[in-house]
Amino acid sequence: MYDWPLWEVFIRARGGLDHRHAGSVHAPDAHMALRHARDTYTRRLEGVSIWVVRSSDIVASDPAQDYSMFEPAASKIYRHPTFYVLPEAVDHM
Amino acid sequence: MEYSLFRALTQLGDDSLILGQRLCEWCGHGPTIEVDLGLSNLALDLIGQATMLLDYAGELEGGGRDADALAFHRNAEQFANCLLAEQPNGDFARTVVRHLLFATYASALYEALTASPDARLAEIAAKAVKELRYHADFAADWAERLGDGTEESRARMAEALDWHWRFVNDLFHDDRDWAACAARGLVPLRQSLRYGFERDVSAILERAGLALPRKVWPIVGGRSGQHSEHLSVLLATMQVLPRAHPEAVW
């Protein structure tokens, strides 16, 4: 049991919402990972659907590369659509 | 008073209560945190069922006893649970086999009880059967993995099966009160579920590389209050607080 791989758990709270990361569980295989996710993260009616994926199958960005990965976007406020003048009738957009 | 139905409900409620209390003993001791939580979930399902069943039993009895009074203020010989439910947790294999046998039996039983002409019982059964199907599934999963796992896990499963199989006759025993309810169509005869039980358990054991024991042990007694020595010890732990402080409230 000490060599069980780690699985990331994603839960859809209600129909129509996206699956969101809830946490992780250890399990020997996908089937047991779903069972453990159900037992660990949906005990209080938190979800209607569960995804699990092997943590090692997730490709993640390198935190050491943050500056070149994300900082260039910081100075480009023109990418936000905040410069349009909206008609008065449109309250929320 | 509907005495036979009161007794039948007590049998059902006590099965859930005692097995639930047993599973609670795993809390903090499970093989992993995920399995620990899983076992606690099963325990809480069972205690929820026990509360509904024993509350109903108490109402039928008409003596002012509710589920708490029945759970905490009866002695071992007044409990009507099956012998299987009170067996000690042992190792994880024993707990898995106990649960496999109980939940396979109980999910078939409660499935039948959803059609009971007693509306209150049918309603309780409708809730319980969903839980118990998950219990049966949970136990079958582990039975297959442990039976088909390492040499040690297989040996432990075989030992666990030997230990618990002695109590299957008691599990399916239709005592006088249960049979009286069955005659009125309120509950199915337990014996009528036995063939399906052996077929289902046998299929799971086959996938686990284990065989259904052939020996039939003629042991009964749980329904009439003749329990193994393990029940008194369980009750001592479960009942100590309400007995020492009968007026205590949360």
Index terms:
heterodimer, A: 93 residues, alpha+beta, Ubiquitin-like (UB roll), 3-stranded antiparallel sheet, 23% strand, flat, B: 250 residues, mainly alpha, Ferritin, 0% strand, globular
Commentary on this structure:
The complex is a heterodimer of chains A (93) and B (250). In chain A, a hairpin with a 6-residue loop joins strand 1 and strand 2 (19-26). By secondary structure, chain A is α+β, with helices and mostly antiparallel strands. Chain A starts with 5 loop residues before the first strand and ends in a 24-residue tail after the last helix. Chain A has a domain at 1-57: Roll (Ubiquitin-like (UB roll)), CATH 3.10.20.520. Chain A has helices at 30-41, 66-69; strands at residues 6-12, 19-26, 49-54. The relative contact order of chain A is 0.18. In chain A, strands 2-1-3 form a three-stranded antiparallel β-sheet. The two termini of chain B are 32 Å apart. The A-B interface holds A 1, 4, 25-28, 31-32, 35-36, 39-40, 43 and B 31-35, 37-38, 41, 138, 141, 145.
In short:
By secondary structure, chain A is α+β, with helices and mostly antiparallel strands. Chain A has helices spanning 30-41, 66-69; strands spanning 6-12, 19-26, 49-54. Chain A is flat, with a radius of gyration of 20 Å.
Element order of chain B: H for helix, E for strand: HHHHHHHHHHH
Say how many strands of chain A there are: 3
Helix amount of chain B, in percent? 55-70%
Distance between the termini of chain B: 32 Å
Annotated CATH topology of chain B: Ferritin
Overall 3D geometry of chain A? Answer: flat
H and E string of chain A: EEHEH
